[in-house]
Amino acid sequence: MNDLLNIEHLSTHFKTEEGTIKAVDDISLHVRKGETVCIVGESGCGKSITAMSIMGLIEGPAGKVAGGSIHFDGRDLTKLNRHELRHLRGNEIAMIFQEPMSSLNPVITIGEQIVEPLRVHLNLSRRDAHTRAIELIEQVGISRPEQIFRSYPHELSGGMLQRIMIAIAISCNPKLLIADEPTTALDVTIQAQILDLLRRFKEDSDMSILLITHDLGVVAEMADYVIVMYSGKIVEEGEVTQLFANPKHPYTQGLLRSKPVINQRQDELYSIPGQVPNPLELQPSCYFHDRCEHCMAVCRMEEPNLKKVGEQQKAACWLYEEAKVYA
Amino acid sequence: MSSIGREITAGGSARQERAKSSIWRQSMQRLLRNKLAVIGLVVVVIMFLACFIGPVFSPYASNKIHMNIMNRPPNMRHWLGTDGLGRDVLTRVLQAGRISLTVGLASMVLSVLIGSLLGVIAGYFKGIVDQVVMRIADLLLTIPGLPLLFIFGALLSEWKVPTEYRMYIVMVMLSLIGWPSLARLVRGQMLSLREREFMQAATVLGLSAKRKLFHHLLPNIVPLLIVIATLNIGGSILMESVLSFFGLGVMPPTATWGNMIDAANNMLDFQNRPWLWIPPGLSIFITVIAINIFGDGLRDVLDPKKKK
Amino acid sequence: MSTYISKRLIYMLVILLAASFLVFSLYALTPGDFISGNMKLSPERKAELREIYGLNKPLLERYLIWMKNALHGNFGYSLSQQTPVLTLFNQYIWNSFLLAVVSTFLTWVIAVIIGVIAAYKQYSWFDTLVMIGIFAAMSLPSFFIGLFLIKTLAVDLHWLPPGGMLTTGSSSTGLAYVKEVIQHMTLPVIVMTLLGLGSLTRYFRSNMIDVIKQDYIRTARAKGLSERKVLFTHALRNALLPAITLVGFELPALFGGSLIIEKIFNWPGIGQLYMQSFGLRDYPLLVGFTMLIAVLTVIGTLLSDILYHVADPRVKLQ
Fold first, then answer.
1. Pair A223, A288 in one domain
2. Min CA distance, C197 vs chain A (Å)?
3. ipTM score here?
């Protein structure tokens, strides 16, 4: 098996005063070496929680990985102790976040923040770490690295900060980079630059990327394989060209239809009717049923399983199940 | 423009009422879920009941002097012993509690009234009114409070204010010291509320100044005021006890917790008769801690900024 | 920056001027003066002395004279001790400072440590215990806890001396002297630390709770830093930042002594000096002390503002 990351039946739950929220509900996914996998979905669908579960950063005691396994490079991350996990984080698995403005510590210089993982994981001396940090700042395309090294986050723009976040992430040559909405908070022109940067590093180092986004444009740009999540579940997944050309699940179809296409003016942009269900009130059913134009009786009563629907494509939808007849 | 505004708010007011009551009910429910705060409240209530009703059931409430049972340590008949005049200490502690609690409560009401009124006025009207109020507040905050209280206390003694009235003057003194910081807080809150989007919306809708003030601004600072007021009672009780302990607050024969601890200034009583001064001290401590815990619970519930 | 500070300075001076007049008048209003309280003097002698001290002049004139002298750095003579007020302050203030600086230091160290741990373990039993402790410390009547500790630890158990700075009649020097002072200051320092601990611990706890939720803490964890480093480097630096403003507010407490504690523990500090002088109506000293605190308060507030602007890289002075 050449999977770098192999998640099986992962469930992550949060206990609240009103009840347990199954933020991630029994999902399985695989990331191969050098591959870019995108998780797509609306906010609250569990895509970020999936990332945090991999990192072991789910905040207890309310949140907990309730079941399943996360195998990374042969080790089950859910079984590692805190110490072992810490050595993986920032070293073999790195992560960048949505809000570069708030993701860097406002009272610590940029330089010091880049140096930290180098010192911790690579045991570099203070001077070597400094030299390496300067190199990294240059690599992510920022000029005057010495000056940037000494500045504080508030002195830099959002795009620059995200570059710094990338510099920190790649500093220890991770095998897997998790990018959680890395471009969402940025201007459109900057977005493209950041994506280019990510792609370049990936090609240079054979690193895998798990990219989390709600932006189908980013998916089309970056992904080898796409996973669509809805209400904590995977509803469809597949190789990117197949999935875009022939989406099977009504939710995926809706997502693709609601994306404006340049040069094709429509009178009204399509939007999926209805709202995401309240995670506390989920009953056994297809969670998309009350927004689905193809909703059948079975959809309200039973959960569909993820089934193969194409050569490299799976969907969890009763439309593609062998007719299971309900009167 | 303004007629549209009126329509909108008129239509909204019934809904607003409903929303308001449910917000208060929700807050109550959340408060009751906070075990510590509930315990605090219970203790405060018990303390109040004991002090205001307790002495009625005491056979020693008349405070008659009994020379034959002076300075007895705690025993079956006098649970906390008797003092130098043969009076029952427990009864006196409860009676003293009446005064201490009343002073604490009353000076809180006074300083919150003065402080919030001036704070609201300053924060709402800004300009010259704001300048005058805040400069006076600055001035009072610059001068240390305790010496100020000492001077007032000395004045009271000199003017031979009858002990019955001293209590009221002590309340006024405490609120005089207490209002500036309150006014500053309320003003700050008003200023920040003014800048918030919903106030700008109210202005766009063309609401009158009065309506903005009473329907939109004040309801928003009421929770804050309730919290401050609660926490302020504890502070007032502590301040009163300090003054009375130094003989500058309420004077004997009117007992307060503070002046009962004055017994500790007498070497013999201090060393050999701790039942004279420890119970009133513990009463202050227990009351204030209960009020503070309850007030903090209130803050968690009412102050949206503190929400977790 | 400089216009901001000069504006502030002018306002400070105005406030202090107003405060000095208010303080002076209030003390002048306080019944009784140093001379009438003295039984040994004949009426003629009293009148004579009043003349000498200028107590017969109208209030405004007295104030102006005082102010004129004060501007020349002369705060008058203590009537009871016949020593310049400033000389007396210099004698007593360092004793007060000793108590204050030790207890302030202890308060800060303990408050930071407990606050950080409680915030990290929010809602745990340790946190609940800390919260109760915080409320207890905030609800202690200072004089009562002082008396209580003297009674239990000093009078009953004889562990520590009950008051003063040295044992009466002691003439120890060198190390023995230091040891004696430390023994005598232990109780007042404990009480002062206890009294300050509540609000400060609470402050650090709630600051830390806010900081721990920030994105950059998640980033620090994602980088694989140890929890200790995340807490004490990344989080604490941010939580300490607003606390810098408190340093300025500690100023009056550091040099102004504590009226209650010094009185209870019979500590020869400036607060105790004030309490004694109050009974004697030694006005130059009383006015001097009150104005000292006022000046410290005003300077402390300015210091807080400046420190805040200096410390936070995000804030720029306008």
1. no
2. 26
3. 0.87
